[in-house]
Hints:
Blueprint: H1 2-19, H2 25-38, H3 41-48, H4 51-57, H5 63-76, H6 82-92, H7 101-114, H8 118-134, H9 138-154, H10 158-175, H11 180-195, H12 199-217, H13 223-245, H14 250-265, H15 269-287, H16 292-307, H17 311-325, H18 335-350, H19 354-371, H20 377-386, H21 416-419, H22 443-451, H23 456-469, H24 475-498
Amino acid sequence: VEQKRAHHTLSLIFLEKLKESFYTTRMLEELPWHLARAGLLDELQQTLCDVRMMDQFFCSRYQQDCLDYWSLIHKSSPKISAVDCYLDVIKRAHFPPTILRAELMCKVAGFLKEMNQFAGAEEMLHMAKHHYENSSSTLEVCRVEAALGELFAQQRNHKEAEKWFNVALRKYEKESSDSEELVVTMERLATLCINTCKCDEAKALLERALAICEKSLGGRVPVTAVQQKAEEWLRRSLELKTQLLGDWHPEVARVLNRLGAIFVEQNQFNDAEACYKQALVIREEKLGKHSSRVLQTIKHLISCYQMQEKNALALEYCKRALEICESPLYGADHPQTANVLVRVGDMLIATGQWKEGMAALRRALNIQKEKLGRSHRDTQATIAMLAQPPPPPPQPMDAPRPRFELPEEDGPYAGKAADCKRKPLGKPGLPPPPPPPPARRGTAEDVARAARGVSGDVLNELLELRLNRGETYDRSDAMAQVKSMIGARSRKIKLRKLK
């Protein structure tokens, strides 16, 4: 009770300072925290919707704190919507000269996307685009259009994503032919084309992007050097973020995710697995077990286990990913859920659970046909997986092997099967020795050349030539005679020396 009173007192002091437009880093960090500890959730909501506080809160350092505060508000009052609150602020609030309205709109849209409020993020981006168009800021309009493409791509609405990426790409090409934003947009559009089975368009886009990079970089950089440099910088970033933000901050988990990806590219799977697991623990603790970021890390772990053929562990994490997708995050009939179902079915089949795996694949196919269409790449891949035949049932170790019977045939080979039947055993219990091989054409010349000391390489070439011409049909017989003649020749030479 005393601590709550102390938080309440400090909250009132900071609120008085806020009315005087007195903003400091300490106020930004402590005022929402004291309000949350004191239980003053209405004042907390008003603080989060303050324009100056919003401009500072949406940076990477405080974004996770802002997500936690809104989660606390939603738990106490589920009817309160962050989207409605921010839209009301953007439309009605007075903006100081140091804060650009459209820039703040883009920040709010990125924050709403982190909250999985995609409709609100889309509305905010359209408002920012309209504002930039009125101010004739072409490059800023391109950035907003590319952000719309990213938003729709995250929702797997490929048609709308491709539309916005193409719009942004055309404007980027008019403004600058070798900018970094142009290359990034080409790469994202190429990835989208690959996902929609437009491989020729993707190849053309990637080749253009590569030409721009080579022109600006002056040549290609070896991949191994890039990976080593990336690992070095990521390790430094991890060390600094841990010192500044603590071991349990989501930014630390983000760096661990990227470091794990570098380790996977270098086939260091144990290090990658350790990074992914540490990132998963942090994100589950800070973002909740049903967050999209938690799902992202779990997918990385599944891929890591699949590369090592640890199918049982991969199946375990596939089931966890399916549980997250079926939660209110996406729902049971979302394309993301279908993708996870495909991975679940694949792992079930790999672990010998054929019926359960096919059931998961059929469920994924129904979702993909409804949401993506039958001609989509993911749908066609699932159909191909369903068409594969079931594996043969395992036979016990003591099961008798089936006997192979040669069928009787008509034509020129009729009756030959009888000659191939097993010969009766002799008295000692062994089969009679085979008859000597018949003489083959071409064997004499091979033996003569070998006896005159022809090298092994020349002898092999000679034998291959005669086999190809059809002059001899039994290579083993020819070689056996060659070896015996070479042995006889060497014995004669030794006998002459002794004499």
